[in-house]
Amino acid sequence: MRHTNLLILIVSIATLSACAKxxxxxxxxxxxxxxxxxxxxxxxxxxxDGSSFCADGSIVAVSDGTSASxxxxxxxxxxxxxxxxxxxxGQHTVSEASNALLFMSTGTPYVSVGDSAGWLxxxxxxxxNRRLKVRFQAVVFNExxxxxxxxxxSVDVTYTTAE
Length: 163
Known about the structure:
By secondary structure, the protein is an alpha+beta fold. The chain has two domains: 33 residues, no CATH class; 125 residues, no CATH class. It contains two helices and twelve strands, in the order H-H-E-E-E-E-E-E-E-E-E-E-E-E. The N and C termini lie far apart (75 Å). The relative contact order is 0.17.
């Protein structure tokens, strides 16, 4: 009897352990989080130091007609933020003073620094529908530990106006 109970316990633990999934996978299966990254007009995708990030928690984009502020928050707590100083079509320099980027990786901030940390390209701006499409690539810096990491990605958002 004692060996039977022990066998049942071991089989139960093995079965439950095999069924354990990451929180995001469960959320996707339940329909609480999409399996793909966002939808047209509501997408922030970032590749940070070789790891993919999707703003699947919240996206906020605000524009005054000439600049924009875009923030995407993931369900697991990572956050991406971009201050786009000019939403004119074309490529713009990312630096500490203009077109600044911020990525919070599990509470650790990485920011664009220097005069030329990378680039940001405004691929589409539809003022009538308040739609903005942006691509970017840069190197961001953590002031606490001195590490630099590559960041790249794209944003496709519908913004509100700050009037």
